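input
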Amino acid sequence: MVTSWPKNFPALGTGANAFAERIERMSGGRMRVKVHGAGEMVPAMEVFDAVSAGTAEMGHSASYYWRGKVAAAQFFTAVPFGMTTTETNAWLYDGDGQSLWDEVYAEHNLKPFPVGNTGTQMAGWFKKEIKSLEDMQGLKLRLPGLAGEAMSGIGVTTMTTPGSEIFTSMQTGVLDAADWVGPYNDLAFGLHQVADYYYTSAWNEPSAILEGTVNLDAWKALPDDLKAVVTEAARASNLAMISEFALRNAEALKTLVDEHGVKLRTFPDDVMSALHESSKEVLQKQIDSDEASRRVYDSYRAFQQKVRPFTDVGEFAYLKARDKQLG
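output
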């Protein structure tokens, strides 16, 4: 298994390791998976091609890295102002998200699975405080996927920098700001050492799926019981990583604020409004130019509209009530 993460990197790299271990354990040792960190076998941004070609049988990465190859792929990581982790999993497991993903990736000789989710991410590290939309103009920001395009639409220069290069790029001025994942992974990379302001309200990645891929020829060659093993190991790994992020992000956020003096901020209203409008334009342009993207996003949007009313009166209403009572 080739990955886009540094070997043994918290949650992402260790999550890939745990996925491999579950496969071996659940198969009774009939399947063994060796995990390679980014750059050990292939570079971080070549996982898709390596698994598609059969250079490696499996991969672990994030689908929006492949937007230049498969435009519809990015919908299977994160959508700006999109669904929560719970809603996203419901779309994949109980809606038609997984079948659409299978359809899109089959053309590239891949079988995909959700193998982890970061949960709600942060909105990024900034060297200077953002007080108005004008402050965003000309910033060099690491932000991939559809959200990166939306940022470009409001005057930000965006790029997809491999995770392992973010710290140095911030330190040397190649980047003025960077979105990575959340407190747990950001602390591990030491991003608090190169930026003072940590922005929240993750319009960009309200949920971020981590994908596992299997070479489709290798997948078809597996007997049904081993296909079931991989499928259920992926499902278990998805849940385990969500739980890990929920705990570790909370612990890391406290460390960042209490021990390192990180300043938490939210974007001003004019920035959020501009990002929402830009996101709508980006999504419309995407579905107008690519039929697969239209099919996927039509499904995604319809599912979000279906489940949002209960999210609003259920979890969201409870969180507001809890905050009011607990302070």
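quick obs: Strands lie at 2-3, 58-61, 110-117, 124-126, 140-142, 157-159, 177-178, 197-200, 209-215, 263-266.
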